[in-house]
Amino acid sequence: MSTRRLAVCSTVAALYFWQSAFLSLAQTKNDPARELWAALKKALLADNGDEYFRTTVKNAEMTPLKGLVIAVLPNGEAKKAMVTMSDAETADITLILPQGKAKMEVKAGAEIEFTGVAVAFTKTPFMFTVDLIKVIQIVPRP
Predict the structure, then answer these.
(1) Structural element, H or E, at residue 33
(2) Is residue 134 pLDDT above 60, yes or no?
(3) DSSP helix, strand, coil percent of the chain (3-state; round to 5)
(4) What is the dihedral of CA 76, 101, 120, 44, to 10 degrees?
């Protein structure tokens, strides 16, 4: 491959990277729920994240969050919804859905907006567990 062709390919790759990063940042900046989630996750992943969770987040009612349900699993009397807040492959949140509280049917592939109480957290692998208080909205995706 010629030096000129290599330079063009490198430039195109760099432009694609920055365009993707910019679009990702723009989407986050226009969505307060995603901004909140990004700040919370950053705080939890910090060196003092475990202490921050115990003293500030645990047993606190969360403001509404939005995510994508990637799986729904049985969990004894309740169900668990695995929710991603960042990409379509990796769950960030385990949402505990008690049968008495889950008035809407939660299915994989749906976008969900919810409130709940933070009950557990692990840093590696990252998982934030929320006991559902209220489903605000479920939007099935085609």
Answers:
(1) helix 32-45
(2) yes
(3) 35, 35, 30
(4) 140
Please return the burial class of 25, using the count of CB atoms within 10 Å of its CB with bins 0-12, 13-18 and 19+: exposed
Query: What is the pLDDT averaged over residues 129-139?
Result: 90
pLDDT tens track for 114-131: 999 999 999 999 999 999
* Helix axes 32-45 and 3-29, enclosed angle (nearest 10): 110
Nearest residue to 135 via CA among 65, 36, 31: 65
Beta strands 127-139 and 111-122 are antiparallel
Q: Extract the tokens encoding 80.
A: 């668990």
Nearest to 108 by CA among 95, 123, 121: 95
Query: What pLDDT digit, counting tens, does each position of 55-113 carry?
Result: 999 999 998 999 999 998 876 667 899 999 987 789 999 999 876 555 457 888 999 99
Measured distance CA(5)–CA(12) in Å, rounded:
11
Residue closest to 35 by CA, chosen among 86, 88, 95, 91:
86
